[in-house]
Amino acid sequence: MIRKLAVVFIAFLVILPVGNVLNLSIKNHENEDGNMEKENTHFQLRISKWSDWNWKNQMGFYIHTKYDGIEKDTPVLQSIFSGIDVDNDPSTGVNGKDVKVSIIALPLIQQTDVGFVFTLSLALKVIRLGDEIKNGEFEITFGGSVTFNGVHHFKIGYYSAEGEEIPRELREVVTIVPYIFYDRDPEFYINIEPVFDNGNENVSAILAYSNANFGEHTIIIDYFPALDTMIKVTPSIGINKFGFSIERYTDIEQTIRMRYIGEMAINLTIEDIPQEMAFSLSFAENYFEYEASDEFNASLIIEYREMEFVMKIEYLPRHLMAQFDPEGYFYINVDERKTKFIVANALENPTMYFSVTNLTGESIIRWNIGGEGYLTIDGFTGLQIEIKFEMGEVYFKIYSILQTEHFEISWNLSIPGYVFIDSNNEWLSFYSFNFTIDDVFGILIEANFIRANNYRVEWQTSVPFFTTDGEFDFVGNITFAIMLNGTWYYLFS
Fold first, then answer.
1. Which pTM value belongs to this model?
2. Whole-angstrom distance, CA of residue 314 vs CA of residue 180
């Protein structure tokens, strides 16, 4: 039973996300000339600077503190009964002690809707004594080792950055419900209850585990700000699906970042969290799915460190599914037009960027970017799409609002060569297409409105004489140019 509990506990550890996550907010607006421009705004969430305490080599149970660079390890019983002088200053706190702790490890058999189940709760309560250390950089963790079929090392605790108020009191509770005797996915609950003197400040919580068989796993949950918050996680490891629910007991605006480092590196950041939300995430190679019982005016950022790309969902829908192949295929299905789905290879100044919004239903995008290539988009009317690609001497960027269910552009940028455009003779709004190769060959199309019906432009010589076929219309200002051997030739301007 205990071994099964340990396995379930490790399963919990390997799903939660670590690393540095930035808020990525990208919006489009119209400039004075009526053209669409993209504005990139972002802010950095502060990073918790945890110490390098070698807690796995400790014999027994200790409380580790770090205050403004002063580190010390204090035996648990001494910490509970006497308190801890974290700053080595006998004139601060109460009788020279700056914090007092209490610890509870509580295994229980509880009645639930499926019968009696085993639960395990671990609680750490920290009380700040006095105000002298109130705004310093502070870390406190409880760590130790348990021997059962090997050595299991663990620690839990919290961190407060310099200039942020250290909570006057904070309780951190982790509860594990493994459902050992039932065919049911395990459940995990993480709850923090902070109390501040002045408003609400940021706090980071940590849970770390190490074992020779299961490896090393570290979880950090950053609260911006820290509020009375319960996080529930239900993993289905066999099918790579994880359920999350968050319950907050205040309506103050909050962002939560969950970070994991171990066998993989995943970051999960949720912005503008409602008071209650529940959702699940499914992962596979080149596959992602988000499901929820309701839609939420919140944003979710998921960063896959090993795969070197990040996803963001703005205005969380009830359902979103995406399948993709980096070589030139992307499928997305969304049930909420307000949702904006973003994939990029970096959070700041990405060289590869893809976004879709204003979509209810499914869309398929196919592409081949090169001297001879194509881009096709099939989806519901009103789809708004933006793609950016920079690699070496190749630059590709497209933005458009489609009033058609099909759009295609293909090209051969050589001599002879061609450009082909088709929108089923339906309109595209605020269309911008920019593709250049080594400043030698390129296509530039910018217009307020265009539509095309099998429109084809061909050329034969280096000083080209262009021939056209099909239909092409536009409204408002337009630029339609083709670069051959470093010279731009304008068909419309």
1. 0.79
2. 38
